[in-house]
Amino acid sequence: MYCALYRKWRPLSFDDVVSQSHITTTLKNQIIANKTAHAYLFTGSRGTGKTTCARIFAKAINCLDMHDGEPCLKCDICKQADNQSLTDIIEIDAASNTGVDDVRSLKESALYMPEQARYKVFIIDEVHMLSNNAFNALLKLLEEPPEHIKFILATTEVHKIPPTILSRCQRFDFARIKAKDIKDRLMFIASKEGFKLDDDAASLIAKLSDGGMRDALSMLDQCTAYSDEVTVQTVSTAVGISGKEYVFDILEAVFDSDAAKAIDKVNELYSMSKDLQRLCEELLSQVRNAMLIKTSSHAEELIASTPEEYGVLSELAEKSTLQGIISKLELLEELNERLIKATNKKIQFEMGIIKLCSCEETRRIGSDHTQAADLKPLLNRIYNLEERLNSAQTVPIQKNEVRRYDPIIPENQTSPEKPSADLSKVKTEDLEPLKNWRDILSRLVEKSPSTSAFMTDSSAYIYQNTILIVVKNRLLIKLLKDHVKALDEAITETLGARFAIRVRAVSNEELKDEESPVNKLLKKAKDLDIKVEVNK
Ligand SMILES: [Zn+2]
Predict the structure, then answer these.
(1) How far is the CA of 200 from the centre of ligand 1 (A)?
(2) Cα 417 to ligand 1 centre (Å)
(3) 17 pLDDT band (50/70/90 cuts)?
(4) Is the pTM of this model over 0.85?
(5) What is the mean pLDDT of the chain?
(6) Could you give all domains of the chain from N- to C-terminal order, each with its CATH number?
């Protein structure tokens, strides 16, 4: 019968346990000095050796020929323990259905002396899963522990353990196993098992397993099912990290600020039924990798990727500043949150991608004329104003506000295609901002959700019979042209009259002015009729 590698190579003595010497040494010393505790709590993420150490400890304190705190592995007790037939070592999985009942019968079982061994050892795995009643039963035993009993509680989620239990246990925190230690162990096992494992492949598995030996060995198992010669390629195929080119295609476009290309890629994936939430997470994880490359001198050890992917990531990191990468991470995290709640994930996603493509440029212009240190209080105030702006948006349109924008030229004399003036060169600061713009956008949501979603960063101005819409991204001009009918309707319905519509992209100069935090604040304040004093 085939035995999984992680079972077959589970350490039988403390010295075989990898990366946890701070724990194994202490335990051995306690055993040698005969000063073991009644109850232990082993915490740490999965695959770090908690259950393994619990079993070794149970053997060592009962071993008939213990040496230096280690079990002999040869006596009757050790042998029975290793083939799990020793009735005095009782393992309870609190996560299983029977776990709770097992703990209830613990009390009864604890009354009896061990059958063969010196101590009865209860190992309770995933102890945080116990019910309150079960915890209470356990607590009674921990309060007055019988001499012949030892408890080892193991958990991945120590914060879920009641303090009354915690305070009665000696606690050991199992660290994630170092990638180097996992790699060495993999190479050792491969040599014993007689298959070829490439150095690079072992490193890759070690990084992918995120500090868990069990996961690392399961991956190695998967790889050997493919081939006796495990290479990086085998690992990529077997554990499914290959075929991520699309993630890098999107990121390359994003780092080149090429929104059109990025959106094309997203649409391509969307039409292939790619889950957008998942895609967002993948983008997040790779941008995080780019950040590591930018900041860490040993990023290669931290990132689970093929050498080719690492090359692409390095190029991406090269293209952006650290601040630029962090901005992208923040935008992606925001997008990830939004996607969870979004009714139309595709619109949110496309919006997020456009923001990602423009964040570098905005940041660069913004940093030209203001020192970062000065920004914080201002940004906070802008944030507060934005909050108020957002809440103001939900107020229904007042009739008298609509009146203010009654067109100067009656509808039947002006078609939307004939504007009253050439607005392409007029400075927006000379124009009157259109106060109902947010209301128009809200109305546009019903008619053309995607257009509306892309316009959240736009602004609009009114001049005679014309509405000038200024968008941040040139791409949006084309998009709006395709949806001018919906926009025209939204404007007419909101303002009660038709207007000519003109769209242009914000000029670099305007972007500079607008992105200066002071101006941004003043503009927001003006929109809201809030008076702001600026000390110069
Ligand atoms: Zn023994």
Answers:
(1) 39
(2) 93
(3) very high
(4) no
(5) 81
(6) 5-173 (3.40.50.300), 179-238 (1.10.8.60), 245-369 (1.20.272.10), 392-528 (3.30.300.180)
